[in-house]
Amino acid sequence: xVLSIMSNYHLSLLRSKGWMRxxxxxxxxxxxxxxxxxxxxxxxxxxxxxxxxxxFVASGASAALIVGxxxxxxLRGFAVRNREDEEEKEENRSPARPAGPAxxxxxxxxxxxxxxxxx
Length: 119
Fold this sequence. Notes:
Layout: H1 2-6, H2 16-39, H3 46-92
Helix pairs in contact: 2-3
């Protein structure tokens, strides 16, 4: 059942909706990360440590949301720029030469219409 639901999603780096979802997930994951850091003693003890943990959560969540909100927009801008560059290269490319008549190799005789005929 889970596989059928997950197969409906298509991953695209150019769509900002997926990047925003990833930003929300990372922002929410900052809370357990901060609590593990607090439990391992990375922050001070007491209210000062709690304040540091809250600042850690707020800064990590805001960074995740900023990256999530801007990543799709930035990647789409690079993709559009790359497509425009490719189109300019194709326009500046010299047109292909049209195929000319087939030429016989040197020394070969040309078989033309018969010259001797009944009059």
